[in-house]
């Protein structure tokens, strides 16, 4: 698993980590590493799902015949003619 690292080398590495971080920080360090690994696995899985959906959509678009969508026609409305109003002036005197 670790290649050429043996049991003695792993114990030595763990001892150095214990000296650097201290006994109180090791549980927090382990928790942080665990969350990071879990998040990485989740993102890799989600990326695979998204990629598979994208490929399926591409295949579906390629297999479906291209349909022309008629563009809506805009009809020009005739200008509405309003009757002219008569202006009456009232003079008071």
Uncertain ranges: none
Outline type: elongated
Protein structure class: mainly alpha
The average pLDDT is: 78
List the total number of helices.
2
Largest sheet: none
* Rg calc: 38 Å
Task: Note the run of SSEs as H and E.
Answer: HH
- Beta-sheet strand percentage? under 5%
Instruction: Please bin the fraction of helical residues.
Output: 55-70%
Give me the count of strands: 0
Distance between the termini: 113 Å
List keywords for this structure.
single chain, 93 residues, mainly alpha, 0% strand
Describe this structure in words.
This protein has 93 residues and is an all-alpha fold. The chain has a domain at 26-65. The protein is built from 2 helices and no strands. The protein has helices spanning 7-21, 26-63. The longest helix is centred in the middle third of the chain and has 38 residues, at 26-63. The protein starts with 6 loop residues before the first helix and ends in a 30-residue tail after the last helix. The mean pLDDT is 78.
Q: How is this structure best summarized?
A:
With about 90 residues, the chain is mainly alpha-helical. It is built from two helices and no strands. It has a domain at about 25-65.
What is the element layout, followed by pairings?
Elements: H1 7-21, H2 26-63
């Amino acid at each position: 698993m670790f290649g050429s690292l043996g049991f003695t080398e792993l114990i030595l590495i763990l001892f150095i980590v214990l000296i650097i971080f201290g006994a109180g920080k090791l549980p927090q360090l382990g928790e942080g590493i665990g969350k990071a690994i879990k998040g990485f696995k989740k993102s890799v899985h989600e990326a695979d799902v998204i990629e598979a959906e994208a490929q399926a959509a591409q295949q579906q678009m390629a297999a479906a015949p291209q349909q022309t969508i008629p563009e809506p026609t805009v009809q020009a409305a005739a200008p509405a003619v309003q009757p002219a109003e008569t202006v009456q002036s009232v003079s008071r005197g």
